[in-house]
Specification:
single chain, about 160 residues, mainly alpha, two-stranded antiparallel ribbon, 4 strands
Amino acid sequence: MIFNFLANSPMTWLNHKLIPYVARLNIVPETQVATNQGVQTRDVMSFLSGVMCYSSQNKQPVYTLQHDQMKGFNYLLPSGFYDVMKAYGFPDSIRKLDKAAQTQTKAFVHMAFGVMGPIIVDELTKQGGPLSPIKSTLTTSLGHHYLDNLAKNDPGTLFLK
């Protein structure tokens, strides 16, 4: 139990510091609503319901991206997170700390006949780790920024406020 505490403490502290910092700098775009602070599930569901009604009434297809919250944080490749750290100008020490935490990750394969014994893998985000949600959020934020930039220049883009 003490080993687990010692292993997770630095990552929990980093997560505790990263979340308000990312929010203060508006790194996560507004369109990535599910991960912005202060947004609740009912807000997202209400927003998507409004988009679906608009699409149905105007007979116009609308495309949205939905993140699978059940599996999205599991076994995320760290390279995407490291690219984000570099793109947003975070210190390289975060990458080094995370890389040190990604050694000897146990992956369990679920098959039709049960769970297969662990496979030891390096450089893989541990399932349920303290940084898993923020790593997923930041990694997908680059894609959201890219899509936002594309949409701003498209005359057929639907803007909801």
